[in-house]
């Protein structure tokens, strides 16, 4: 059994209200003084940031800097790892997610798309319908509607509508990743986490996923981990630069890439890091 522990920060409760963006809008996700340990090894150090609703937030930084570890704290995926300890606060819509025992509800609200497509060995239709069925939806007409709406939302309906009953594993890598996005959409999340969703894709498929991300932000809050700085610049509204488990700088994406305030950020985004 994993042993995830969350210890409430003793800072003033006003911290949450201070998690505003430059626009003055309240954050959809507020993270305050987050620390994460794998046993005795600390992986995240005092991470604090506010993630704005219906925007794309990119997490950049070198390999092993804590980007994916941080991303997985937002829907408690780290709970699955033995010996994990977390201190600090993560608040989604005014609810501290580590004080709730309803992890299924959280992961319905906060969907995730992984680095490599992870479709089930079943039809395209059954992949997308899997989550709604697990939620108790059995009506065929309702499932048909959810599947079509989700595949349309992932910009792949026209490519697969005539082969919904064929294996999803027969699709190209880019198509499989968009079906994974459709599967996440089918759960009607408010937030979608993406862990390097295009790293295994060719340039054309990558472009399609990037266009999809840009289109999706009108309906979803998106947090994306990427090693591709050009991708971060293209798709995100805000960018956080991670280094050695810390956030070095977090700002509007244009500012991060054109006028970073920290020399380490400047070195990284200009390719002089290391």
Concise summary:
It contains eleven helices and eleven strands. It has 274 residues and is an alpha/beta fold. The protein has a six-stranded mixed β-sheet, with helices on both faces. Strands 1, 2, 3, 5 and 6 form a five-stranded mixed β-sheet that branches.
Word description of this protein:
By secondary structure, this protein is of the alpha/beta class. The protein has one domain (6-269): 3-Layer(aba) Sandwich (Rossmann fold). It is 35% helix and 25% strand. It has 11 helices and 11 strands. It has a 6-stranded mixed beta sheet, with helices on both faces. Strands 1, 2, 3, 5 and 6 form a 5-stranded mixed beta sheet that branches. Strand 8, helix 8 (203-216) and strand 9 form a beta-alpha-beta unit. Helix 4 (124-134) packs across helix 5 (140-153) and helix 4 packs parallel to helix 7. The radius of gyration is 19 Å and the shape is globular. The chain starts with 5 loop residues before the first strand and ends in a 5-residue tail after the last helix. Mean pLDDT is 90; it is low at 1-23.
